[in-house]
């Protein structure tokens, strides 16, 4: 959704008499007034008669958290330009209405994702803040449209240089990158000063990826509960993990109870419905095996957390089963709690940890004066129940205020678009 010029400017916003959730400590700061000026938090003060008089919204009984991040998405996972409007008109607004004010895009059409990143930053397009890889770097037999094929080290180096020159924020590796090309990619990325992250390729071990300087592992590829040497190396080198648990443990019952379904494309939902029907018809032995795999995945998440390996919340939306953009992030946080994290620890994976990951704790991740105004007003306390992150009342994204009424209008418009 495009913003008219008159609405592209950040506003002065006051959220009055609200409880601030300090995601660093878990402390609650009650009866506070948050004043946003431009794109940043101008001040935080005790709520009073004076602050009530200038309030944009009364936060009495509500809780405010930093804007959420989905650290693994694919906004333009195609080169078919006729489909890009779906991202702009449906996916990006869906992130906002779900309180997702930032995303890390790990594989998209280069021109489209750079244009969107810059348009969102200029408040010309409704959507989350974006840090992007552009197309993934993969091997010569890749099945992905949004990928650059490399076979040799020279080709990998050239791809890294081209992407850096175009202005991407990071490099994304895929599964089929040949071994020599991978190490050349890692060397070139270090030489020109751009981080690389993504899949651990099939020809590479997890330990080799750690030693090569890969900043994050996606989907916990190459990590097992018995590989204690790798787990120790991940912890020692602070190699981040973005498990995307939701993309591997979804069930037919999850689909049936997913509140995000009415807000996504009918063609995709019909495919998911067929998958759910197939899952539901599987014999009990298959269902038990799937549950055991899910249990092992969740146990591995907790094992990594206990080993002090930093975690990031990401979903792979919309490139998988039952992954509605925005809504799926709330389910990922619930899965983290199911794995054994506390609600605070889960919340940190989508707020404080992304700021740490990007080296931006001076601007993102917590609610403090001087920081960028990415805020989500919730009806209920997420530290009591992580599912309360779904209870979005209002959103401030990069200083731009989305009122309850505006969020409702956006939801209605999204439902109209996906029904066509």
TrEMBL record:
> TM spans, by residue?
none
Domain spans labelled Amidohydrolase-related: 63-400
The record, for InterPro entries, names: Amidohydro-rel, Metal-dep_hydrolase_composite, Metal_Hydrolase, Metallo-dep_Hydrolase
Keywords recorded for this protein, A-Z = Hydrolase
| Gene3D superfamilies named in the record | Amidohydrolase (3.40.50.10910), Urease, subunit C, domain 1 (2.30.40.10)
Signal peptide range: none
Under the heading SUPFAM superfamilies, the entry gives: Composite domain of metallo-dependent hydrolases (SSF51338), Metallo-dependent hydrolases (SSF51556)
**Molecular function terms in GO for this entry?**
hydrolase activity, acting on carbon-nitrogen (but not peptide) bonds
User: Does Coiled coil count among this protein's keywords?
Assistant: no
Judging by the UniProt lineage, the source's domain of life is Bacteria
**Name under which the protein is recorded:** Amidohydrolase family protein
